[in-house]
Design a protein that fits this description.
Strand content: 15-25%
CATH architecture of the largest domain: 3-Layer(bba) Sandwich
Shape: globular
Mean pLDDT: 93
CATH topology of the largest domain: FAD/NAD(P)-binding domain
Distance between the termini: 32 Å
């Protein structure tokens, strides 16, 4: 694409669920604004077109994970990746968003100039670099790397004669029928893969975990939604079930954090009811941390527990000594034999899609900045990043963020401003703004922005608090500074 002297109002980075939602709200609330979406890959969908492993599904309910403006029509609370992709494709088509997307266009560098009051972007497409300019930059690329996953180095990996797979890069048309499989890990990916592989023809699946995670069963059909649809219009039914789930989830999270011992005891007791009598729940399903110190894994209709109870899958809680020719040798001395080893060992966090950001020629290290209202970086003008919730549906927060962009742009137009910057000399908090101590968060501690100790620099991971401060409080709050 040729360089252009046109200055766009907004450039959105990423055509995943965040970028598509942001584009929708810009079209609806700021129809005069000119924008484009830069998508590094050749398709929309982000996570949902990248991850292709068996059983890939949402781990949040679809009534809140789906867009507010496009009701989720199925009664299923958790949905397959394929259905989510269809939903996103429908959204793009219905709202004529694809015309705004520039595929295979990766942001390399973003340069802000105080004198010009614009972002100058260097973008690469088909090995050709072109320039774009915009007033506002909306980063919707998520917070993990699409090109790398987190993989520890294991002794003797080269000795294993079978196949080693990372879920993020699942081989197309892999035939695992009749194969013995080890899934290394205990997070959302692992508990999704185990029943999917077990029920799709694997001879046996062993989930090998160093330590347990919290796992709870979620009924995968909303009887309340089915009931409401019988008597109420579909749109109203969706609004009611969405509000109900939002309130229930917020209250549940608050209870789990307020009474961790009671919550832990209850969650473990529910697990025990779904497993054979005498199963060692203490060893395999009792984490060393409190609920929501790390993400809690939801399994639809207890499919994970069914696969264990049926004997198609088993759990081993131990550490890996080394890989062998035929599988994995554990520190306990036991060897698990396998044809395929799946390393569901986590994500590698990455912000801005590896793009470098500069303000007046100085490179920005986000770790040196505080996050304002969970979306703007302190002392970086006209830049908004979409960070979803870690304890609720991702889309809830990015929807609020997209609407705030529209609110901010309208305010600036009305006042004649063209620069907005959150200035801060606040002392940062030691707590991660993601409110988790998971391994992938700890590993990324040197690249993540920090949060403060009070609003608007503190991130509460609470939809109702965010709804108030982003939708109803004044844009000109004394912290956000504006320039003409």
């Amino acid at each position: 694409m040729a360089n252009t002297n046109e200055v766009l109002d907004v450039v959105i980075i990423g055509a995943g669920i965040s970028g598509i939602g942001t584009a929708y709200w810009l079209q609806k609330k700021c129809p005069s604004k000119k924008f484009t979406i830069l998508e590094a890959r050749d398709k929309i969908g982000g996570t949902w077109s990248l991850f292709r492993y068996p059983g890939i599904r949402s781990d949040s309910d679809m009534f809140t994970f789906g867009y507010k403006f496009k009701p989720w029509k199925s009664s299923n609370l958790l949905s397959s990746g394929e259905n989510i992709m269809s939903y996103l494709a429908e959204t793009v088509k219905e709202n004529d968003i694809e015309k705004h997307i520039q595929f295979e266009s990766r942001l390399m560098e973003a340069h802000w100039s105080d004198s010009l009051k614009i972002w100058s972007l260097k973008v690469i497409k088909n090995n050709v670099i072109f320039d774009l300019r915009c007033k506002f930059l909306s980063v919707c690329s998520g917070y993990y790397s699409y090109s790398e996953a987190y993989k520890p180095d294991f002794i003797g990996e080269e000795n294993f004669k079978g196949q080693t797979i990372i879920p993020q890069f699942w081989p197309e048309n892999l035939d695992f029928t009749g194969k013995k499989i080890i899934v290394v890990g205990s997070g959302a990916t692992a508990v999704t893969l185990v029943p999917a592989l077990a029920n799709q023809g694997a001879a046996h699946v062993t989930m090998l975990q160093r330590s347990p995670s919290y796992i709870f069963t979620l009924p995968n059909r909303s009887k309340l939604f089915d009931f409401l649809r019988k008597y109420l219009p579909s749109k109203l039914s969706h609004q009611i079930i969405r509000a109900f789930i939002l309130t229930l989830n917020t209250m549940s999270y608050g209870f789990l954090r307020k009474f961790p011992k009671l919550a832990k005891s209850y969650m473990i007791s529910q697990v025990a009811k779904q497993l054979p009598e005498g199963f060692d729940v203490e060893k395999h399903f009792t984490p060393k941390y409190n609920p929501w110190d790390q993400r809690v894994c939801a399994v639809p209709d207890g499919d994970f527990f069914h696969s264990v109870k049926s004997g198609k899958a088993s759990l081993v809680t131990d550490e890996i000594a080394r890989f062998t020719e035929n599988g994995i040798l554990l520190k306990s001395g036991e060897e698990i034999k396998s044809d395929i080893i799946v390393l569901a060992t986590g994500l590698k966090m990455n912000l801005m899609g590896y793009a470098k950001v500069f303000v007046n020629g100085n490179q920005v290290n986000l770790n040196d900045h505080l996050v304002y209202k969970g979306m703007m970086m302190s002392n970086v003008p006209n830049l908004i990043c979409a960070f979803g919730y870690t304890n609720a549906s991702w889309t809830l927060k990015v929807d609020l963020t997209a609407n705030y962009i529209c609110k901010l742009l309208k305010f600036m137009d009305a006042k004649g401003y063209n620069v907005a910057v959150a200035e801060s000399n606040e002392t940062p908090s030691d707590e991660s703004f993601l409110a988790l101590n998971s391994g992938y968060v700890q590993r990324a501690s040197k690249i993540l922005p920090k949060q403060g100790r009070k609003l608007p620099w503190r991130v509460y991971q609470n939809y109702f608090i965010d709804k108030f401060i982003m939708s109803y409080s004044a844009v000109n709050d004394g912290v956000l500074k504006f320039l003409k």
